[in-house]
Design a protein that fits this description.
homodimer; alpha/beta; TIM Barrel; eight-stranded parallel β-sheet; two-stranded antiparallel ribbon; 47% helix
């Protein structure tokens, strides 16, 4: 029986606040306690939406009462959950939960998916260092199956960021998470970030952005959360064209960049339109040479060579458009332990999405491409895969599944 | 022979600065001269891109040396150009040229497509009033064929904006152009704008936003123009979901809203995703009731009832996706006299896009829907249509055309 190697390109991990506290430089512990108090106050403000509370109750039930958070830091439990879900290895981002299900398990000082918005830069960097220290320990407890992504705030102190990237590499982490938004700092087309790209290329550290950092230019008001949810994909997609058009992948041909938990569907139109501009279109003719001055290839060629979409819990349209995007540029992920992920029905959702996809394309999207990108030891993973990986019959056939959504 | 009624839902008009000056309240004329000087200085900074200058030279040649700007304010000449292009009537926005071809013909104080960014609000309002006065005169010279859209800055002084909307209605203008971006003002979900929506609904004034106001959160640097061009559609699309999700069309069921010069292709994915959220999706379940609290219908139903895409110079994908968007929500336009428009090859481009489109759908997109929306006197336009409108044979057949792109 042939089993698929499944690699989740989007997992989240992090310990409870009392453990994070120990990993923080002592000078930041008091400020950390204050920040945690603020988070708990925000949590209080979110109560009262009946349909949201019903959802949290359902999620409690599905996760056996811990909201999935034990798996966020307990090494043995994490591996057990992965086994159950058929996942051999995974990429680990921060922020196992930030208020989403009424809990707090977040990289200190908002240094994680929020990119450190609204917090003093030195605290954000201290929070990132604490997370990265913890993460290196967590990875070392199951190194074959865990790909650690260091949190690296690059918006303010570039030298400190470079140091943190080098440290992360030394302790075995394989990538860096940079803020998805640049807020008031210069955008990523600015030359100030060149040392970041150069260092990541030199060390083979994969650069990541991750959805979750939304727009800031509207306040509370009618429809606010719906507007946020509608826009979120775009803010998380934005670094892609900023990096491509400013020639980052032209100057750093070996740099690898992953856009996590942001689907893939949008790339079909995005890259078509970018290529159209590069090749010369009537609509943009008056802009002269703007689309060619920093690039020697079409935007789609940088996508092919340098970029990946970690499309966790992919939708039908993510999979259907794979040939417009590049089948080898799409990585499956399950967003464990976030409730919008596929847990506890991962095997069901893999079948739903890949039943009609040819086996070789399934193999690449589900894990082979990620294994190559992150340099996994596939030979040593094979016994795990043989024990837990979904079989071709399970994915493309009618084998009954144990867990299916109610 | 059957001729199509062609209505351009996207034209631009405005006089040279010396004429605008006369329409300004006298107290603003000195400041206007200073602002014009600043624009001329920006123009100087743009020189030097060889491919851009080649393009300007080609455009000069195509337009007989005036860059198309005589048509922007000379009534007889405008009608002659429309006749030549087969266009019976058109919607008139400001900013016939803002530096695009090395010229300045723009609504005073950046009050036009730029939404008054960076200029004191009272000057922007004074500039808008001047444009609207001029526009009312221009419309009155050929009232059957011209649909005037008043410039109305709504970001600062709401009372003044309401007054200007009423004045515009009294002098025969049929719609208002509001800033596409809200900059530092509250977003359009804010209740402060309720009087604007209510007044426009009451008076039957069609609300418009128009592309051209780009992002402001990155500075000069590599790839800047390419990044701008890639993002422009999104900034111009954004008011759509802000207005829908905040329930503006729920509370104002007769309000009509047009998104001009921003294609239509993006609406297919946008409205699918919005409906998906409204109907309840796994990804957004944890957000509870956020997608339903202000709406009694699906987002696509507000699109159907209240919104239109003035997709000037449509691309293949705008037309191909018409059934995903709503054939009756798409208005053709030619962007005259902008060089990215179809002039002087409008008949050619109509054939290119509509050759395979059924005649009834062609009829609605090319003009019938716009005629209904803006209340055109179709019976009185008929003699013009019979004289200049493209015939069904010309659009769907092989009749040789006089002008085709070289």
């Amino acid at each position: 029986m042939s089993h698929y190697l499944v690699v989740s390109a989007d997992g989240h991990a992090g310990p409870p606040a009392d453990q994070y506290r120990e990993y923080l430089d002592p000078g930041y512990r008091e400020a950390f306690d204050e920040h945690q108090t603020q988070l708990r106050e925000m949590l209080e403000l979110m109560r009262g939406d009946k349909s949201r509370e019903d959802f949290v109750e359902k999620w409690e039930h599905l996760t056996g009462g811990d909201g999935g958070l034990l798996a966020a830091y307990d090494s043995d439990h994490r591996d057990k959950v992965l086994d159950d879900q058929g996942v051999a290895a995974e990429v680990l981002f921060p922020d196992a939960d930030v208020l989403g299900t009424g809990r707090i398990a977040a990289s200190p000082f908002g240094s994680g998916l929020g990119g450190g918005a609204g917090v003093e830069p030195d605290k954000v960097m201290a929070g990132a260092r604490a997370h990265n220290r913890w993460l290196a320990d967590f990875v070392s407890q199951s190194p074959l199956r865990r790909i650690g992504v260091a949190v690296v705030p690059i918006l303010h102190d570039i030298d400190a960021a470079i140091n943190e990237i080098r440290t992360a590499r030394e302790v075995g982490l394989k990538g860096v998470l940079i803020p998805t938004r640049w807020f008031d700092a210069p955008a990523y087309h600015d030359d100030r970030y060149e040392p970041v790209w150069a260092t990541c290329e030199e060390l083979g550290m994969v650069v990541h952005t991750h959805s979750g950092s939304g727009p800031a230019d509207y306040g509370l008001g009618r429809g606010m959360m719906a507007i946020y949810a509608t826009e979120a994909w775009w803010w998380a997609a934005r670094p892609f064209w900023v990096l491509v058009w400013s020639g980052v992948f032209e100057r750093h041909r070996n740099l690898q960049y992953v856009i996590a938990e942001n689907g893939a569907w949008w790339m079909a139109d995005t890259i078509f339109k970018m290529d159209e501009k590069y090749l010369g279109s009537h609509n943009t003719e008056k802009m002269g040479n703007a689309f060619r001055e920093d690039l020697s290839m079409k935007p789609s060629e940088y996508l092919d060579r340098n970029c990946f979409l970690a499309a966790s819990t992919p939708g039908v349209e993510d999979i259907e458009r794979r040939h417009l995007i590049g089948t080898d540029n799409i990585l499956w992920g399950n967003d464990l332990p976030h409730p919008e992920g596929t847990f506890p029905y991962t095997r069901y959702w893999i079948r739903e999405r890949f039943r009609e996809v040819p086996a070789d394309e399934t193999r690449r999207i589900l894990g082979a491409t990620a294994a190559g990108l992150y340099g996994l030891d596939v030979a040593r993973l094979q016994p795990i895969v043989d024990g837990i990986g979904p079989t071709a019959e399970e994915v493309h056939g009618d084998v009954p599944l144990e867990k299916v959504p109610a």
